[in-house]
Structures are given as C-alpha cells and as structure tokens.
Amino acid sequence: MRVAEHAGDGDLDTVLGKAVALLRAFGPEDRLLPLAELVRRTGLPKGTVHRVAGDLVHHRLLEKTDHGYRLAGGLFELGMRAATERTLLEVAMPFLQDLYERTHETVHLGVRDGTEVVYVAKIGGHRQARSPSRTGGRMPMHCTAIGKVLLAHTKPAVRAAVLSGPLPRRTPHTVVAPGLLEQQLGRALETGLAFEREESTPGLLCVAAPVLDTDGASALAAISVTGPVGRFRPEAHQNAVRAAATALASTLARRPGGL
Amino acid sequence: MRVAEHAGDGDLDTVLGKAVALLRAFGPEDRLLPLAELVRRTGLPKGTVHRVAGDLVHHRLLEKTDHGYRLAGGLFELGMRAATERTLLEVAMPFLQDLYERTHETVHLGVRDGTEVVYVAKIGGHRQARSPSRTGGRMPMHCTAIGKVLLAHTKPAVRAAVLSGPLPRRTPHTVVAPGLLEQQLGRALETGLAFEREESTPGLLCVAAPVLDTDGASALAAISVTGPVGRFRPEAHQNAVRAAATALASTLARRPGGL
DNA sequence: ACCGGGCGTTCCACTCAGCGGTACGCTGTG
DNA sequence: CACAGCGTACCGCTGAGTGGAACGCCCGGT
C-alpha cells in the first residue's frame, strides 16, 4: 500500500497541492495507475481526482490510456529543464563517459538533497550489475559510497543530522553504528574517497569521490563506480574515479556563474 | 522576448494553468529568472505570479534564490519518473553506450511527439561536436536525421501534416521543398536509414535508424550518431547505428507489456 | 443467471481558495 | 535628488473548484 509522497505537508486544500499529490502518487517503478488507485494513494475524493487528473492530462503532465494514467512526456521535458541538474549533467557527461570506458562498470553522478542522495545520472552497459539506483531517484547517504562522500564534504549540521537520526539497516553489512559511520566519514574526508561494501545492496561494491566546490571543501556532487562482488575491485578504480571527479570540479570551477 | 509556451491554449483562468505557465516560462537555456521576468513572460499579474511562484517553491517545483527563481530538483525527480521515457532510457542505455564507444561521436535517442522530435538521451564525450540538441528538448523533424527516420516510419497522416505544413529553413542546406523531403523519406523507408547534411545545424552531419515496433513498420524511437563536417563520415557508421537500433528494438519487443 | 462490488463519468448547489489592484519600502541609475 | 523598477504584503470580493451523489458498465463469485 503506497501512499503519495507528502505533497507539501498535507496541503490537499489547494489545487496545486492536489495536483502535486497526484503526480507524486506515481512511484519510481509504476507504469499505469487507474483512477481508483490514484484515489487510494492520495486519499482525495474520486470526483476530485478525476477532475484534477483530467486537467493534468490537458497540460501534458499526465497521459490517459484505456488502462489508466501515467506520467507524461511533458513532465519529462519540464524536468530536463531543471537548471542545476541539466547543467551538471551536460558538463559531467564527457567525464562520466571516460570513466565508463575505462571501467565498464556502472557510473553514477549524484548530489545531496537534504539527507539523501539524488542520482543525476546513471551510465551502464550490457554487463552492468543490478543496482536499485535510478536517475532522479533517491538513496540514503549512510549506506552508499556516493552518499558517504557527499556527507563527508558537507556542512557539519547535515552530518550531525544523519548521524543522530536512524541509520536503517538495508543489508547485513549496513553500518548502523553512528561511531563507525563517523569513522568512515573521517576517512573519506582524508582520502577523498569512500567505499561501499554491500551496505546498501547485497552483492554490490562501490567507490566514490567528491566533486568539490571552489572552496575546495564542500562537494557539489559526487561520482561513483559500482560493480558486483566477485568481479569488481573498488580499489582498482579509485584513481580513475578521483581523477574524473577532480577534472569535473575544475571544469565547473571555470564556468562563469558556476552551477 | 520570450513568451511562455502555451500552458494549454491560454487557460490562465485556472490555478493549474497558471502554475504550468510559470513552469513553462523557463526556457531550455534559462538559469535564474527574476519575478519581473516571469511576469513579463506569462502576462499574469505580479501579485499572482508572486503567489503561484511561492506555492511552486513550497512544492519543490521551483527554487528561489536571491537573484531569482529556477526550476527545482523536485521537478527533475518527477520528470525522471515519466514511464515511457524512463523505460526507454533504461533499456536503451547499454546500446547507446556501445554505439558511443564504437564511434566516439554524439549519440542521440529520440521519439516523435506530434510533428517534432523529442530527445530522450544525448551521450557525448570531450570531443563532441557542438549540437543544439538537448535531452528533453525538441527539434523539427524535417531537417534532422532522427526526425526524418521517425517521420518515414510513422502514420501517413503525420507525414502528410509535416509535408503540407511549413518546412522552416534553418541553414542554407535545409530541405524546404516537400517533394525533395518526400523522396528522402521514401529512401529512409527503403534503407532503414536517414542522413542529415547540415540541414538543421551548420557543420553537423548525422545518420539515424529507427527502433521499430513489433509491427515492424512503425518506429517507437530512433537512434542517431552526429559529428562534425570534416571529420565525421555518416556512411562509416550507418551499420553500427542500424545494428544498435535493431538490437534495441528486439530487446523492447521481448519486454512484457512493451514500452 | 443474478447479484454485488468496484470502476469511471457526470452533475450542480455551495463555499472559501484564489485573486489582483494597491500600497509600500528598497535599490540602482542618471 | 527623482524616478523607474523591483519584490512583498494586504484584503474585500467572487467565481473556480468542490465532492457527495447518482448512474451505467464490467467482472467475478455463487
């Protein structure tokens, strides 16, 4: 039973709040959702859902088929205009490509939003390991390499917030002890690298490096390489990841107006 | 002077219409837009723009900075959940990567929407030619290889609509005679390939192939490789492009529920 | 075959969310 | 200094939006 993500602290009293609730009722893996399911997920009255969905269809944010609604291409187009993500993606693409060619493992670019990682890009080939990450998707920071490196290179308040909050266990390897995580973050800060050893997903290893801002201390983004246990050795790629992140950072630094 | 894209035939009488007008006031290259510019582009009263923008900020669809508003990451995240684009991107990625590695030129994945191409992916490296295409962006079909191949493999009504409408000249090489374009489309249909020779952008050449649907006739999408005049020879890559498109088509055909 | 549950669509009297003109303080420029 | 332009806040008014109810259709179970 999936309930729509908070449209914005429950304000289903406004048209916009309802529309956003409807859009956010679609999960990352959903294809078509019938009207009745949208009603269940939003808790809005049927007539309202029907009307707002119809309006969203009119505005090309939803698409209606015989079997239900789905998020429309107009939303994809709008989403790809988000200035920060768009720019980062465009500038980072060549570096991500190089890294992919060098490793032939899954390459990720991510940013921090609040206390989570948001993936801006995911590049993989035919032999990519099955990873639950998704462009535009989110993961916790404490159990992902990319998240740890972002956490290590961000404001202490954010770090404290994550360390003092729950560190949900996702696998038997997840580090759930704040002390242990803090040590990992310290090491990430020293070395400019973080590793992930089946902490978020069984069978997956990862190494990540920060894309530093012009202050040289905080991370704008991070780049990682992920591969499967057995074949993948994170240490073997750490220099390539670090080089890519450093090169991207310096390219971004040279841009007028920054990100 | 840029006016916001039609929110949906001018319905600025509704909250949703206004919100969408505001979001679509941001162009593909815009970074920050101050409130006054949003007022100018939408034609909405200042107080209304201020209020709706504030609501959109609240819902993480816009972001407010000292110097103006920009489309927010929440919109990027929503956009990346669009089912059709998301699926296509995910399934196509390995094929696009292979093609990039083989050519080291810019690789595009596009779909048809109405009488335009919408780019779903753009993959390029450090030496990529300067191309105006953009993920989530649109181009006319008549002067792009990817557009021509989509046009050749779609319903005759669409083809007729494009051929009977204006074929705007974008470069001295743009084909603006319907008869000539029709011949190119015929050839694209026979050969399963279309070429672009500086028709959309001076200095750019391109070859594209359709990703056919299970009916073997209509195109779900198309893949292209683009490079600069002088270095790039489209004919040299035509087999690789066709192979990638064919492989992708067959992978999509094997998916339960299709796209 | 019949029944009931669930689906999607439509309607309309009512109401409060949304509206935008106005006022104000601030900033930058000539 | 004056003025234009900016962004923010306010509030009486009203019509856009509401959602309960009704209806027809479909499907699965007995």
TrEMBL record, chains A, B:
One Pfam family cited in the UniProt record for this chain: IclR_C
PANTHER family: HELIX-TURN-HELIX TRANSCRIPTIONAL REGULATOR, ICLR FAMILY (PTHR30136), HTH-TYPE TRANSCRIPTIONAL REPRESSOR ALLR (PTHR30136:SF24)
Domain HTH iclR-type span(s) in chain numbering: 13-80
UniProt name for this protein: IclR family transcriptional regulator
Domain IclR-ED intervals: 74-258
SUPFAM superfamilies for this protein: GAF domain-like, Winged helix' DNA-binding domain
Entry keywords, A to Z: DNA-binding, Transcription, Transcription regulation
Gene3D superfamilies: 3.30.450.40, Winged helix-like DNA-binding domain superfamily/Winged helix DNA-binding domain (1.10.10.10)
Top-rank taxon: Bacteria
InterPro entries listed in its UniProt record: GAF-like_dom_sf, HTH_MetabolicPath_Reg, Tscrpt_reg_IclR_C, Tscrpt_reg_IclR_N, WH-like_DNA-bd_sf, WH_DNA-bd_sf
